[in-house]
# Entry
Amino acid sequence: MRSIFDRFFRKLREHRNDLKEADGITAFKSNDEDVIATGFPLVPDGYHLQHVGKTVQGNGYWIDVQRASEGEGTRDFVAAYVFDEKGNLIHSEVVDRGLRNDSPAKDLGETIRKLKKKIDAKNVTEILVKPFSVPFHGYIFGLVVREAEDGEAVSEDTIIDAMPGHTLMFYGPWSLCNYDS
# Structure
């Protein structure tokens, strides 16, 4: 579902791209047909993408809160990902916060602050990312391209899930940061 904000931010990006091209700078433009190779932007917002930006070294970072079903319970994680300027994953770390209701909860804010300090997070800004997956604690973490399930037709529209909890679903057009939770 598109909102008035999607249109506003798309126009804002188009304006920024026009300005950058006028200055001789090549702006990020994603290829909708091959998002796996070209990547897509993660744009900080006040909701699910609060911890997106650049490190002191100039790499992109994203800190994501994830969960995984485990028997009768839910296990919580905080994942920190660092990307090069082309959107390739170059470092990842996952903190296991334990099973919910199993032990006293660790402070989520403190965990995120420690990870930001460890990866030298500098500022909040848009970054480029490509789909990736990394194993931690017996689960697959990352931005994973959704594959068709048995009996389903393969969709022409690529969908990328934040894993392991399927907490965010990213979709095209890939020049924008479209997601549902």
